[in-house]
Amino acid sequence: MSAPVVTRFAPSPTGFLHIGGARTALFNWLYARGRGGQFLLRIEDTDRARSTPEATAAILQGMSWLGLDHDGAVVSQFENAERHAEVALELLAADKAYKCFATQDEIAAFRDTARAAGENTLYRSPWRDASPETHPDAPYVIRIKAPQTGETIIRDRVQGDVKIRNDQLDDMVLLRSDGTPVYMLAVVVDDHDMGVTHVIRGDDHLNNAARQMMIYDAMGWDVPVWAHIPLIHGPDGKKLSKRHGALGAQEYQAMGYPAAGMRNYLTRLGWSHGDDEFFNDAQAQAWFDLSGIGKSPARFDVKKLENLSGQHIAAMDDAALQREIAEYLELTGQPALTTAQSEALGRALYCVKERAKTFPELLDKAHFALTSRPLHMDEKARKNLDSMSCDMLTELTPHLQTDSWSRDNLESILNRFAESKDTKFGKLAGPLRAALAGRAVTPSVFDMMLVLGKDETCARLTEAAKTVRR
Q1: Are 367 and 339 in contact (CB under 8 A)?
Q2: 293, 26 contact by CB (below 8 A)
Q3: Are the beta carbons of 43 and 76 closer than 8 angstroms?
């Protein structure tokens, strides 16, 4: 029986949750959740100068919005520094690492000389095989003894077998002269101690795998399954950057994209399952596999994101949709909906969520239900309310007050009324839109009437007619 799958996401808390990092977290989450495994979170905060609590909070908030729940407590890499150093000393005691007393100036001078001579600048320490009796009383670093012949093969589930000549690998530093562990050591020790079975990360870490494998091999630890995924590029084919627009997960939340739509889009960004484009979390977890990840960089396409987001808004449960809209309003510093507005929005969702790609679009379409009298008329709406159309609204209102409030009855009343005026319903629709919403572009007149109810509909028609006549 194979061991349970354990994946991890290990961001550095130096900024927001980058959209590329969000996709990496998502891929790890999907792979673990689809196999009944564990998805762990480790904050790689060893760079104390750049790591901030605010960045950590932003990462956690971004993952929370995306619904990427992790198992167990969040691990701080910095807090495991003693354990990292312990492994380096264990390798030193086993003669798989050594003390190197070369100074930075000596290393720089060696490289300058090699560069001037057109030779390899890979530093080979003279202390690798030196007898301890020759060691000076001076600061030193601990370096691993890298293999010097043959090749290292990274068996990658995305990139295939990647071969690196061992004579191109230096004796990597494990512990600095001040006794602090380097990032490459910390990553390996943490992944081993956390039981990580699959390392799914960006392909900018591919070369790191060869150096990290030296530590796994030296310690006699099992090497995890590697899966290095291509980075995300912008529409122009270049690495995604600020010039392409928003980069952080929270920026997309603030633009009003639903979390489900973002998950769906990011899953499809570099991974495929046949021709499937729109799918839910259960399907994504069941389908996701490393074999579906492409080798080429994916291009971020806002139009595709909008399309999928719109489909998820349309398919979303109304209560869940209301909750996410409330979170969006809070995040963007907008006033929360009142109880009356929330109830009105709930009644209106059926006729506004089908064509909205984002929450701002949805709220704009639902404006008629969220606003209250006296309505503010936009310029186009005012043009639809002349004295003749106001007379028609005044005459129409009593007909609406006496009939049952159903779509069939409303359609019948309005069509009969239009016929009695020897006109088409389209001529009546403009003034009705203006009176009911204060706008020229709105949902269906019948939908607005049903959402607003008889009393509010009649009150708005009466008020619009009076306002124009003043």
Answers
A1: no
A2: no
A3: yes
Residue 318, token pair as written in the block: 């109304």
* Token pair for 33: 């959740």
pLDDT at 469 (0 to 100): 58
Whether 118 and 81 have beta carbons less than 8 Å apart is answered as no
**DSSP for 119-140, written as a single string:** -------TTTT--GGG--SS--
Question: Quick one: which H or E segment has residue 79?
Answer: none
Q: Is the pLDDT of residue 86 over 80?
A: yes
Structure-token pair, residue 12: 């550095």
What's the confidence (pLDDT) of residue 1?
56
Q: Tell whether the model's pLDDT for residue 209 goes beyond 80.
A: yes
Composition of the chain by helix, strand, coil, percent to 5:
50, 10, 35
SS3 95: coil
Question: Beta-carbon neighbour count of residue 265 at 10 Å?
Answer: 25
90 conformational bin, left if phi > 0, alpha if psi -120 to 50, beta if neither = alpha
Average pLDDT estimate for 365-376: 96
d(CA 116, CA 156): 37
Which three-class secondary structure state does DSSP give residue 174? strand
CA distances for 210 relative to 68, 169, 207, 415, angstroms: 29, 8, 6, 75
Q: What pLDDT does 246 receive?
A: 67
pTM for this model (two decimals): 0.92
Residue positions counted in the chain: 470
Whether 359 and 324 have beta carbons less than 8 Å apart is answered as yes
| 425 burial level (CB within 10 Å; 0-12, 13-18, 19+) | middle
Please report, for residues 89, 127, 143, 332, 386, the alpha-carbon distance to residue 134 in angstroms, rounded to integers and kept in the order given.
19, 9, 17, 65, 101
Structure tokens of 325? 């809209």
Structure tokens at 134: 């020759």
Task: Read off the tokens for 364.
Answer: 């704009």
User: Are the C-beta atoms of residues 61 and 251 closer than 8 Å to each other?
Assistant: no
CB 263 within 8 A of CB 67: yes
Catalytic site positions = 242
